[in-house]
Amino acid sequence: MSMGTIVLLALVAVVGVFAGWAWRAYSRQRGERIVTCPETLAPAAVKADPGHAAVTGLMGHTELRLSDCSRWPERQGCGQDCLAQISAAPHGCLIRTHVAAWYEHKTCALCGRAVGEREWLEHEPALIDLRDPAHPTRTWHDVAAERIWTVLETHAPLCWNCHTTETFRRLHPELIIERPASGQTADDAKR
């Protein structure tokens, strides 16, 4: 092997190590998080700047800063003291972590199917508000992150299939035909 090849392989290895550090810092800081705002002591939805974390991670010390907060632009000049919560538990304050824990060991409010890790791999589970007679359903993309705790208290879990069915039923009631279950008459089904 020539000296040029050895130098090239060493350079590739060094660049690979640095790229691995940058990717690790970047991936740890992606995603929306829910933190307790130190100023208001209320939940706030924040996003860390993963690009900044990756660049500073290359220099040996990952530095965190926010790229977005539900309290901005009014309070954009704050001290970003909530970053200590993200540093202490990078995955613990991710919204997906809280939501997944809430769904754990739960079943769909309509069909009874388990809503667990398998459901997350196929489609994100949804929610249904059983207090509302119209039974509106929603996905997590429809929920403001700072309202997550209120929604978890007032809604029931719903699998993706039931969410899709109920959404279609709500949007196109003229296309729905209710048929009695086997062994029931049409009059029994109406009761």
Walk me through the structure.
This protein folds into 2 domains: 3-84, no CATH class; 95-176, no CATH class. Helices cover 42% and strands 14% of the residues. The chain has helices at 3-29, 50-58, 83-88, 95-103, 117-122, 148-154, 160-171, 186-190; strands at residues 32-36, 43-48, 66-69, 106-107, 114-115, 126-128, 137-138, 156-158. β6 and β7 (137-138) form a beta hairpin. The N and C termini lie far apart (84 Å).
Write down the overall geometry: extended
Beta-strand share of residues = 5-15%
Distance between the termini: 84 Å
**Tally of DSSP helical segments:** 8
Low-confidence stretches: none
Helical residues, percent: 40-55%
Number of strands: 8
- Computed structural class: alpha+beta
Order of secondary-structure elements: HEEHEHHEEHEEHEHH
Major beta sheet summary = 3 strands, antiparallel
Q: Return the average pLDDT rounded to an integer.
A: 77
Spatial order of strands in the largest sheet: 1-2-3
